[in-house]
Amino acid sequence: MEHRRKSISTILRLFALAAAFICAAAFAVPAAAENGDVPERDLYEFSIQAMEEGRSMRVWGLMRLTYVNRSADTMYSIVLRLHANDVEANCMGIGSVGADGRSAAYTLSSDGGILTVYLPHEIAPGESTRLFMRFDMTLPETGDRFGANSTGYMLGNALPIAAMYENGAWRTEPYYSNGDSFYSRIADYKVAMQIPAKFALAHTGTRMSYDSGRAYETYYIAAPSVREFAFALIPNAATAEATARGGRVKVHALGQSKAHAAFGAQCVASAIDFFSESIGEYPYSDIYVVPFDLNGGMEYPGLIMINKAYFKSSKSTEGALVMGHETAHQWFYGVVGSDQVYSPWLDESLVEYLGFDFLRQYAGSDAADALERERYYAMRNEYLRTKRLDGSLEELSGADYFFMVYAYGHDFYAKLVDEIGSGAFYEGLKTYYNANYMGIGTKEKLIAAFSEAAGRDLTEWFEANIAPEAAQ
After folding, report:
1. Is 452 buried (19+), middle (13-18) or exposed (0-12) by CB count in 10 A?
2. How many domains does the chain have?
3. Separation between Cα atoms, residue 430 and residue 33, nearest integer Å
4. Where are the alpha helices (DSSP H) in 279-315?
């Protein structure tokens, strides 16, 4: 109990110190793409302290959220998703909760993943409210995007985030572990974070300032116009940097050796250049790549997590594919959002194809084609017996998710390129990216963009090909 009081006292001091940063920091909003107006955004302000406890990490936090009602409805409550509790029940504890300077009543769902805060007064369309919340969590040993790994501590989907409000209701569907069960709108973040000095920090956004101490280091981070904020702590990490877009974008890589970090930095920098030229500019100034235990990789704005084996020279081809895939997510999921619960294929299938296209440029067509055969040849008989590509996470459970969203999703876009040509394909992606910049994409918007590029309506083609023959 004394240890907890000391930690809360420390973070309160950190919060006071961070207030000046939070109040003074002016965001340079990333330039909007052509035809892409950046709407008014929510603002998340976090003060965070992390401390090792045995083989785990304890995190204390204070959140101030300025939430803007962009719906047509009057709101009487705000719903937050606590995905940490979706991963492990009661992982995140809730302290005080307030709204507009007053203590606020709240309810927590039985699984702990949904927090409903009742406002002291309603907010009309176009108005805002300011929430306050104190929380703490101990990271579980998961080897996953959230939790303790052999490489360090991953804090993906760890922080409270507002649920999506659509069609007059808050989105509170269950958490599905078989995919990326997340859906959020663009917001601004200001974060003050204190961590043990032995850890290297990777994070969404750009460091504005930094204070070094003997035992702890404090970082002040600005992350404007991002879909969420994630971070990772890697002990005694080797580091490397590379640049992309003529030096405008810095790529920071952490690894278990200098060679591993250098490969990660160089590969992701190449992917940033490839997708910026093919689709549209990467709008941020930084991106981090870190190793973790989960097979494959995981994307967050300005931060990608890659299985540690893929940093090795013996796995460089597959590593380049996975890094290309997760980097492509910065465009599709990050800048152009989509409903990853009900339409996981919209971002995942597309970036699986784009990952292989990047690999062809990076490692050559022979290497990419060989890996594509190795990865998918045996699966094609499986997905022919399954479901539609545009199914939800609930419908695409277990192996069906990989067979359809990855294997058939890749083949679907390969067929589209055969149908309209590579030039029209990338022209369509540019249109889709610009039209939905910092917004939400849908199947209808995607079809419209490709139809415009192809010079003909592709609605029937999409409907005819969105399911394998046996599923039609």
Report:
1. middle
2. 2
3. 10
4. none
Residue 429, exposed/middle/buried by CB under 10 A (0-12, 13-18, 19+)?
A: buried
Question: Cα–Cα distances in Å, from 412 out to 70, 337, 373, 408, 435?
Answer: 35, 20, 15, 6, 23
Q: What is the pLDDT of residue 99?
A: 98
Query: Is the model more confident about 467 or about 118?
Result: 118
Overall size of the chain counted in residues: 472
Instruction: Give the structural domain span for 26.
Output: 2-229
CB 446 within 8 A of CB 346: yes
Name every residue whose Cβ is closer than 8 Å to that of residue 471 and which is 6 or more positions away in sequence.
384, 385, 386, 387, 388
User: DSSP of 319-383, one letter per residue?
Assistant: HHHHHHHHHHTTTBTTTBB--TTT-THHHHHHHHHHHHHHHHHHH-HHHHHHHHHHHHGGGHHHH
- Chain position carrying tokens 């965001």: 27
Report residue 401: phi and psi, to 5°. -60, -45
* Within-domain flag for 441: yes
Other C-beta atoms within 10 Å of 61: how many?
Answer: 23
Q: Taking residues 4-9, report their average pLDDT.
A: 45
Say which CATH number the domain at 18 has. 2.60.40.1730
What's the N-to-C CA distance of the chain in angstroms?
61
Encode pLDDT of 160-202 as tens digits.
Answer: 999 999 999 999 999 998 889 999 999 999 999 999 999 999 9
Q: Take residue 427 and report the two structure tokens written for it.
A: 């022209």
pLDDT of residue 442: 98
φ, ψ at 371 (rounded to 5°): -70, -35
Asked if residue 343 and residue 218 are part of one domain, the reply reads no
pLDDT in tens, 53-67: 888 899 999 999 999
